[in-house]
Specification:
Length: about 250
């Protein structure tokens, strides 16, 4: 059981529930991960940056699918209309002019082949399992739990504000154009997290549902943390790259 495993045992007011959700992010969001700290300090090699971008693409590409699964669960047309904006943001008008395409631009800007990235054949097994677990979670758990798991977006502007300036300052091969994915994300993440938080505040109306919402956010933080754990293990100093995964060119 996590440190938040019985946070709602006695029931929480909306303000208290929101406080606990923010505490989850403060304790468990992946801007605390050593791999992220290495990135922002300028300590990663270009090969490590490539591995991060390639593996993160597998996560980015599944986002519209998990959002479609969430929409499928809702009988409320207003909810569906609002949540559909997330799919539009990532897929764009034709599938390749939204956030996924901008992430692909980031990956190719780092020197990766677009078809290799899109195939996802070279991602780490742990990345594949983590991303699959997230999709399964949003498909099979309650709508409240699926929505609450998206609340990591509350903290997305924080990590972007740390990551982007550091990447531009500390890696001479990274340009603002390569990082175009991040231009719109803080505003979109704030819009989406405001809606999701309001939904959770309204529907987590007893201790059991409040705890489910808290646990869902913990789970999503674990997914993101596990992905960085896998990168650190595979591409760290000991070089534990599993068979079939991306191998950076020698520096």
């Amino acid at each position: 059981m996590s440190e938040f495993g019985d946070a709602a045992r006695n029931g929480l007011s909306p303000a208290q529930l929101e406080e606990v959700l923010h505490a989850v992010g403060a304790a468990r969001y992946h801007n605390r991960h050593p791999f992220h700290n290495q990135m922002t300090s300028g300590a990663l090699t270009k090969g490590q940056m490539q591995a991060w971008a390639l593996n993160r693409y597998a996560y980015q590409s599944v986002i519209p699918r998990k959002d479609a699964a969430i929409i499928m669960r809702s009988e409320d047309p207003e909810f569906r209309a609002e949540w559909r904006k997330r799919i539009d943001d990532h897929d764009g008008d034709d599938g390749w002019n939204g956030g996924i395409a901008r992430w692909l631009k980031l990956a190719t800007g780092l020197g990766l082949d677009a078809n290799v990235v899109k195939s996802e054949k070279l991602v780490l097994p742990a990345t594949r399992f983590a991303v699959g677990a997230y999709l399964t979670y949003c498909t099979n758990r309650t709508l409240l739990e699926a929505v609450a798991s998206s609340l990591t977006e509350l903290f997305s502007p924080i990590i972007i504000s740390e990551r982007v300036p550091a990447m531009l300052a500390k890696y001479d091969y990274i340009t603002k154009d390569i990082l175009a994915y991040f231009d719109k994300r803080p505003a979109l993440a704030s819009r989406d997290s405001d809606f999701a938080l309001a939904y959770v505040m309204k529907h987590a109306n007893n201790p059991e549902k409040q705890q489910a919402a808290i646990d869902s956010l913990v789970f999503k933080c674990d997914v993101l943390w596990a992905m960085l754990d896998a990168l650190a293990h595979a591409y760290g100093e000991k070089g534990n790259i599993p068979p079939g995964a991306f191998v950076p060119e020698p520096a």
